[in-house]
Amino acid sequence: MTTLGIIGAGHIGTALAQAALAAGHDVVISNSRGPETLTELVSALEARPGRRGQVRADTAAGAAAAADLAVVTIPLKAVPHVPVEPLAGKVVIDTNNYYPQRDGQVAELDDESTTTAELLQAHLPTSRVVKAFNHIGAADITGDATPAGTPHRRALAVAGDDAAAKEQVVAFIDAIGFDTVDLGPLAEGWRIQRDTPGYGARLDAEGLRAATAAAKRYRDM
User: What pTM did the predictor assign?
Assistant: First the structure.
């Protein structure tokens, strides 16, 4: 059984907690305000029908330390506050997208010399970051899940520099109800960023491969 450590208890973090608990994983969830503010959320997660794993709240550092697999699902501007040492050596899923109106202007993203996941990787130099879950709505994480082998099962993209890390994330994604498409290294994560053909679309693996192959840089749109 895997413990999923979630840093960020917003819509995506909550949906991933629901999906993980239903798949039999334990969850430690955190936010920026402290575990005492998550009492109602934890109670709601515990009460969900079909829950098989256990859930508790902790600090971000506590969730990171407990994680076999971690998720960072916070606004980009909060990335500098992600705990580094507790995530050393661990696989970290980055769900982020860049919204300048929320995050402020980031020169390296504006000129497309890097990606959001590469920024998180730079902040977590001893972790293994994998991009995933940035192109699916929170409600669809539970609403679109289907068993392996389902015809035209929805697929999600992953990108990462470490093959074993991607394998771990792919296994988790399969367990919660989705196929995957591997985009290659972190630098290719731009292919599924906002405003690209695959962003938000309900596509099976074949369709998602075609959509990500057709993606264009913002400067070329």
Answer: 0.95
